[in-house]
Amino acid sequence: MIAVFDSGIGGLSVLRELLALLPHEHYLYYADTAWCPYGEKPREVIKDRARHITSLLLEQGADIIVVACNTATAAAISTLREEFPGTAFVGIEPAVKPAALASKSAVIGVLATAGTLHGGNYLDLRDKYCDKVKIVEHVGKGFVELVEKGMLSGPVAEATVRESLHPLLEAGADTLVLGCTHYPFLSDTIRAIAGPEVRIINPAPAVARQVLRLYKPHEDGNCDSKPCVKLMTSGDISALESMYRKLIG
Ligand code: DGL
């Protein structure tokens, strides 16, 4: 079984890609909604949540764990790999490399949470590519809250997105990296503001391909026709179920 977790419903953007690639698997999705957002929380708090969730997912029979959260990957994935050595983990981080390769203006914009932008992995990535392209960063302020409320478009979403996109577009970014798994659900609003010329990079499909490389599907017990997805949350399960129907169908 493939287990996926995030601070909330953002990881559904990764689950959506997994379902497209491995449609007959069993999935368990855990939304840590009672602790959402992770973005500005201390590293140690996120590590504790990641440990707790990992133990729970393993108890439920997870064979592989997808940390479908850039912030949790930055804060906790190395600790998880140390403390659960028999478990395969796949994390997610801002797709700086494909953005740097794709950019024609040599300016890329990275939208992510504060926790991701201050994390060691991201700082290393930035160091590696900053002599090839100018990298401009901004926290997607209020984006996670919008997505958690299901406000993916409309005047409030537009105003919120515009505020964080403005400095990146002003700096000449022609490629935007969505460095938080919640943000792809705002893609239409981001696209409407950024315009058709700007490339938007969502690393979720690459994460799904990495799971496909590492995961050995079970011969028996697979779902025959439609995917089997079990939802769990530290918050309200009916709210998660209705967001799942809205975002994934
Ligand atoms: N979806 C998460 C990420 O990819 C976390 C957002 C949050 O909880 O602040 O970073």
Question: What does this entry look like structurally?
Answer:
With 249 residues, the chain is an alpha/beta fold. It has two domains: 2-92 and 205-247, Rossmann fold (3-Layer(aba) Sandwich); 96-202, Rossmann fold (3-Layer(aba) Sandwich). It is built from eleven helices and nine strands. It has a five-stranded parallel β-sheet with strand order 4-3-1-2-9, with helices on both faces. Strands 6-5-7-8 form a four-stranded parallel β-sheet, with helices on both faces. The radius of gyration is 17 Å and the shape is globular. D-glutamic acid binds at residues 6-8, 10, 36-39, 69-71, 113, 116, 144, 180-182.
Key traits:
249 residues; alpha/beta; Rossmann fold; 2 domains; five-stranded parallel beta sheet; four-stranded parallel beta sheet; 11 helices; 9 strands; binds D-glutamic acid
Q: Count the strands?
A: 9
Mean residue pLDDT: 95
Q: Hey, roughly how much beta strand do the residues contain?
A: 15-25%
Order of helices and strands: EHEHEHEHEHHEHHEHEHEH
Number of domains: 2
The appropriate CATH architecture of the largest domain is: 3-Layer(aba) Sandwich
Rounded to an integer in angstroms, the radius of gyration calculated over CA atoms is 17 Å
**CA-based shape:** globular
Count helical runs.
11
Q: What's the arrangement of strands in the largest beta sheet?
A: 4-3-1-2-9
**Major sheet attributes:** 5 strands, parallel
N- to C-terminal separation? 21 Å
CATH topology of the largest domain: Rossmann fold
Low-confidence stretches: none
